[in-house]
């Protein structure tokens, strides 16, 4: 480089000195196994924590909790909650053929809602009349049991009234036939349902939990719990990436910075305050390389400008001293 040396003249000359700088280009990554391992761990770590955030949001959406605290707990305890929901989904898949068969049977054989309501009302009236007749017959039997030689003529009208009321309340033949027909129609439905070995509450609970979580009274708590765990996963991913890359930007951001510097170098030269900031380590290294060997560290025009600066500075110092 050009360095000042003491001479007898007023204009010191510059002589070449040996450079002590190392090569500025780093070694390939595969030749630095520790750095490669660090980056691999960083990539895996970022993927894991962000996947945890997404899984936590899904866990909160499928939670069966009623309060925000319960939903947040299910969002954080991702594995046990999602394992339970997976078991429910697997159970539904395993029994989908039986469920579909039952649904098809009901669709093809079930009466309309009006028919069901009419049959239920008629059956209820028939059963009520049968119960009334049974009560009247029971009371008549009790009266006959209490009848003796002394009160026979007094209890006979009472027994007659009970028998008459039982006969009046007794349903007609058409009502009994309708009741028999309803029972005959119900038996196949019961057989179809009883033939299925399905835990319906287990299936309903999963579906109702999702519908309940997004109902008007719980949707805010559900969305807040989902957003909380997503934010946690994102921040944790940033922390892992920061450690793995030692604070450097990612590959895409680095390439965009380099492309922007080459494309808009004149603008950045005129507006250096908008240029990407330089780390303290590279800044110190650049300063050391300039001091050690400016001809190697700087371009030719910059070396000439630096030499003119020192020449002007010496002239000013010489003028002041004289």
From TrEMBL:
<protein>
    <submittedName>
        <fullName>Uncharacterized protein</fullName>
    </submittedName>
</protein>
<keyword id="KW-1133">Transmembrane helix</keyword>
<keyword id="KW-0472">Membrane</keyword>
<feature type="transmembrane region" description="Helical">
    <location>
        <begin position="219"/>
        <end position="244"/>
    </location>
</feature>
<feature type="transmembrane region" description="Helical">
    <location>
        <begin position="36"/>
        <end position="58"/>
    </location>
</feature>
<feature type="region of interest" description="Disordered">
    <location>
        <begin position="1"/>
        <end position="20"/>
    </location>
</feature>
<keyword id="KW-0812">Transmembrane</keyword>
């Amino acid at each position: 480089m050009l360095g000042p040396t003491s001479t007898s003249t007023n204009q010191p000359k510059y002589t070449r000195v040996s450079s002590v700088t190392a090569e500025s280009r780093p070694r390939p990554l595969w030749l630095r196994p520790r750095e490669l391992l660090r980056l691999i761990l960083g990539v895996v770590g970022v993927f894991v924590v962000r996947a945890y955030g997404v899984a936590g949001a899904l866990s909160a959406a499928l939670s069966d909790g009623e309060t925000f605290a319960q939903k947040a707990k299910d969002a954080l305890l991702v594995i046990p909650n999602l394992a339970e929901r997976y078991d429910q989904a697997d159970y539904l898949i395993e029994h989908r053929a039986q469920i579909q068969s039952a649904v098809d049977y009901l669709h093809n054989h079930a009466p309309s809602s009006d028919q069901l309501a009419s049959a239920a009302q008629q059956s209820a009236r028939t059963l009520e009349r049968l119960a009334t007749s049974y009560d009247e017959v029971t009371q008549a039997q009790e009266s006959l049991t209490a009848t003796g030689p002394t009160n026979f003529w007094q209890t006979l009208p009472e027994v007659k009234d009970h028998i008459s009321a039982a006969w009046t309340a007794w349903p007609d033949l058409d009502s009994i036939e309708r009741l028999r027909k309803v029972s005959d129609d119900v038996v196949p439905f019961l057989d179809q349902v009883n033939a299925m070995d399905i835990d319906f509450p287990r299936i309903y609970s999963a579906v109702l939990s999702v519908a309940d979580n997004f109902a008007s009274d719980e949707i805010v708590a559900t969305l807040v719990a989902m957003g909380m765990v997503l934010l946690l996963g994102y921040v944790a991913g940033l922390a892992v990436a920061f450690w793995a890359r030692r604070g450097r930007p990612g590959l895409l951001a680095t390439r965009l910075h380099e492309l922007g510097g080459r494309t808009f170098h004149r603008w950045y030269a005129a507006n250096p305050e908008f240029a990407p900031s330089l780390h303290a380590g590279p800044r110190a290294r650049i300063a050391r390389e300039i001091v050690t060997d400016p001809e190697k560290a700087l371009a030719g025009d910059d070396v000439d400008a630096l030499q003119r600066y020192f020449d002007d500075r010496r002239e000013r110092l010489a003028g002041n001293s004289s």
